[in-house]
Amino acid sequence: MLEPKDFELWRSVGRGLRFRQALGAVGAVLSRVRERNYELVEFFGGEFGLATRQLARARPRPFIVAHTDGFELLASEREREYDPPCNSLDHLRWLLRRHAHDRLSRAAFVHADGFVTGSELDRKRALELQMFSPEWTAVVAPGVDREYLKAPHHPNREARVAFIGSWIPRKGIRFIVEVMDAVLRERPALKLDLYGTSVPAHEVLRCFASRVRGQITVFGLLSNREIAAGLSRASVFLFPAQYEGFGMALAEAMACGCVPVTTPTGFGAELEDDSEALVCAFDDAPAMRRAVGALLDDSVLRSRIAASATRRVHGLSWATQVGKLEMVYQSWLAKGAIDAAPHRDA
């Protein structure tokens, strides 16, 4: 197993992280493959296009798996929708950056033999792009940490809405602000808890109307146990993500019995609306506002969805999910993967 620090070049340089990692990965991977007779090599992420290209040309070589927690090509397509450039200079910079990044990401997939992702949505897009045959693709969700799976559920939930995630456009922060500004004004006793923003509290709070800032808590670094305790008290989990490979925060909230209002991306795209979550269109802030209000007002609806949501994620332990991934790889190797899979070595 290699982690980025093992192959990242010129670490003192502050820019071009993906390209420095991509270049460094080539030598690190090839040298280790030469040292051992690997049957299968898994590349996790879109930085390995140069490495997979070189490895695909080697003979003999292992079966190459592209495993991703977010299909970079689909993520780029979604980014063009939710965070377009604001002016011509930004547009030029964005085009150059995306063109370079997309080419690097595409190479990580087109030179692989198999594809593993955490959501059916990512798998479907890879098949639509004709990058893999269905039999060499698999969806294996990540595991949920036991602190969330074992969190005690409070029978009487507090008037709290929670969110977990970086304070960035991809997480739908524009909709969090728009929805919660309105809901908090309507409900002076309601609280909003924000976890894991990775942004100073004052920067987050200034996004909201001044009159509701006193109802909002931006938490600093907390343990899994502390976050799980907070989710177990909250009634609603607002997660208007614009793109997720899986969306771990969503599964964690569901495990804690916190009812999600979310969007059709990652794991959220696989949930049954009105049964396991309330799923709203990406840009439908009024629907999100109505959904949050409905859950706050209707404890019966909340309890019903919470029970279904908790059941949905109950089996997502790390041991179970790692076992599923191992079964996928063993089945591919048993089918003579390196000889049977279509190779794209060009």
Task: Please characterize this protein's 3D structure.
The two termini are 27 Å apart. The longest helix has 23 residues. The chain is of the alpha/beta class and 346 residues long. The protein has 14 helices and 10 strands. The strands form 2 sheets. The protein has a 6-stranded parallel sheet, sandwiched between helices. The protein has a 4-stranded parallel sheet with strand order 1-2-3-4, sandwiched between helices. Helix 7 packs across helix 11 and helix 10 crosses helix 12. 47% of the residues lie in helices and 12% in strands. It has 2 domains: 162 residues, Rossmann fold (3-Layer(aba) Sandwich); 170 residues, 3-Layer(aba) Sandwich (Rossmann fold).
Count of DSSP H/I helices:
14
Strand content: 5-15%
Secondary structure: helix percent: 40-55%
| The CATH superfamily title of the largest domain | Glycogen Phosphorylase B
CATH topology of the largest domain: Rossmann fold
User: How many DSSP E strands?
Assistant: 10
Describe the sheet with the most strands: 6 strands, parallel
Q: What's the quick description here?
A:
With 346 residues, this protein is of the alpha/beta class. It has helices at 17-35, 49-57, 72-82, 88-110, 120-128, 146-149, 173-186, 201-205, 224-233, 248-255, 285-297, 299-313, 318-334, 337-340; strands at 40-44, 63-68, 114-117, 137-139, 160-164, 191-195, 216-218, 236-239, 259-262, 278-279.
Which descriptors apply to this entry?
alpha/beta; Rossmann fold; 6-stranded parallel β-sheet; 10 strands; 47% helix
